[in-house]
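Need tokens for this chain, all 152 residues.
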Amino acid sequence: MRIGICDTTFARFDMGRAAEDELRKYIYDTKIIRVTVPGIKDLPVASKKLIEEENCDIVMALGMPGPKRKDKICAHEASTGLINAQLMTNTHIIEVFVHEDETDSEEELKFLAESRAREHAQNVYKMMFHPKQMRKEAGKGKREGFEDAGPL
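Here are the structure tokens for all 152 residues:
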């Protein structure tokens, strides 16, 4: 089993480190391969290369788009590229974006980036090793980073 992590230098928090650290709490014999690229628009090809060249079974793509309109457009393009890479490779790429304008507080933004990266790493672990656990969580209104919304 191989898990890929790709993150960016544009992010204001080392989300890749948080994800890798979280995964290492649960896995021992699984190889984690991490690459860092400049920005979120570089994540799709980095993810695809992790799958095709490094034989990763799943990839986490972590990024932190800025608050400007241009940043939103770039995030949308990156997300579309990640979806295309998933379809081309038949492999899950878990998109973990934290938009800088999700909060006005720098401290809360830091908390959000770390907790979202860690909680999505837990999702990756469950998807790969405990898929029945994921099924038990269906419809529970779970949110990564902020408080869960809860079921209806």
